[in-house]
Amino acid sequence: MSGVFITFEGPDGSGKTTQIKLLEEYFKKKGYDILITREPGGTDISEQIRKIILDRKNTQMDRITEALLYSASRAQHVAQVIKPALLEGKVIICDRFVDSSIVYQGIGRGLGIDFIKKINDMATDGTEPDITFLMKISPEKGLSRKFSSDECNRLDMERLEFHNKVYEGYLKLEKLYPKRIIGIDAAKSIEKVHEIIIKKVIDKQF
């Protein structure tokens, strides 16, 4: 049996972490073998790259450097964790994947979708999510939640204009890939959002 690859996308502060935990509990109750992971990160090497990318002191990081570091982290993550887990038939739930690079670096940083896709095609070796839940919330509201948690990273500190571009990018991807990307109104209650996600999962017959 091949595994299932589920990703969560959206602005920081949109509730991804909470919904990933609830979905993990759902699958565990159903008896599935679950792997929870994140990007950038997921392996020792990838987590080291994550620290460099998100360190608030690295304000001089070039946009191409940033994009390539994300891709490098992802290549290690896919090779070491995601592909082996899929071959073992596990359900993988990942906080962010290629869509994040497309909207943050491709659109937000202005590097272009084609460039980001090219470097990530190599990094993922053809690995794509079966379903992506896009947690939709205004950048202003998401950032206000993030700032109140005192966990802001280098990207969080970008101007609101940047985050608005990123969010608009997510909405474009939702229209481009309607079979894979499922938009969820993250402003709804935690319980309601979870209910919607479970229904979509059941519809996919995982």
Automatic annotation (TrEMBL):
- Entry-linked Pfam families: Thymidylate_kin
Q: Which reaction does it catalyse?
A: dTMP + ATP = dTDP + ADP
Q: Give the enzyme's EC designation.
A: 2.7.4.9
Q: Where is the Thymidylate kinase-like domain?
A: 8-197
**Which GO molecular-function terms appear in the entry?**
ATP binding; dTMP kinase activity
- Give the CC-aspect GO terms: cytosol
Biological processes annotated in GO? dTDP biosynthetic process; dTTP biosynthetic process; dUDP biosynthetic process
Record's superkingdom?
A: Bacteria
Q: Could you tell me which Gene3D superfamilies the record lists for this protein?
A: P-loop containing nucleotide triphosphate hydrolases
Q: What class of enzyme is it?
A: transferase
Where is ATP annotated to bind? G10, P11, D12, G13, S14, G15, K16, T17
Supply the alphabetized keyword list: ATP-binding, Kinase, Nucleotide biosynthesis, Nucleotide-binding, Transferase
Q: Which HAMAP family match?
A: Thymidylate_kinase
Q: Which family does it belong to?
A: Belongs to the thymidylate kinase family.
**Function field:** Phosphorylation of dTMP to form dTDP in both de novo and salvage pathways of dTTP synthesis.
> What is the protein name stated in its UniProt record?
Thymidylate kinase
Gene, per the UniProt record: tmk
